[in-house]
């Protein structure tokens, strides 16, 4: 009897813990989460959102996606994560040669920024790499917007 009670308690604890875990990741893919973050676009035109999930089951501790940027446009990348201290999302922008252009994390000051902009000077494929602090798992959304500069 005592053994079966312990088994039931273990199952309940596991189920509760698992439901908390899955609900946290579900938040990152919800429309409400996206809408909350999209307001940071301001006057920029929405292009696309990228749902980011990095978990321990995956062999990669990073997520990479690409997009073609056009010369004469300014691009805004919004970083929206669960806002947990010690587990912030880091987004790094690279050019077609994987040369570092910009990031939302300043290593020297250890400061995170919720967005950054890039005035594109050359049309081409650009890469965005997403990780979480200290290689941890996490989830969030990246929102890409643009503004065309008229001369």
Describe the protein in words.
The structure is a single chain. The protein is an alpha+beta fold and 151 residues long. The protein has a single domain (2-148), classed as Jelly Rolls (Sandwich), CATH 2.60.120. 23% of the residues lie in helices and 44% in strands. It has 2 helices and 10 strands. The protein has helices at residues 2-28, 31-38, and strands spanning 45-54, 62-69, 73-81, 89-94, 100-103, 105-106, 111-112, 115-119, 124-132, 138-148. The strands form 3 sheets. The chain has a 4-stranded antiparallel beta sheet. It has a 4-stranded antiparallel beta sheet with strand order 2-9-4-5, with no helix packed on it. The radius of gyration is 19 Å and the shape is globular. The protein starts with a helix and ends with a strand.
How do the strands and helices of this protein lay out in sequence?
Layout: H1 2-28, H2 31-38, E1 45-54, E2 62-69, E3 73-81, E4 89-94, E5 100-103, E6 105-106, E7 111-112, E8 115-119, E9 124-132, E10 138-148
Antiparallel strand pairs: 1-10, 2-9, 3-8, 3-10, 4-5, 4-9, 6-7
Distinctive features:
Jelly Rolls, 4-stranded antiparallel β-sheet, 151 residues, globular, alpha+beta, 10 strands, 2 helices
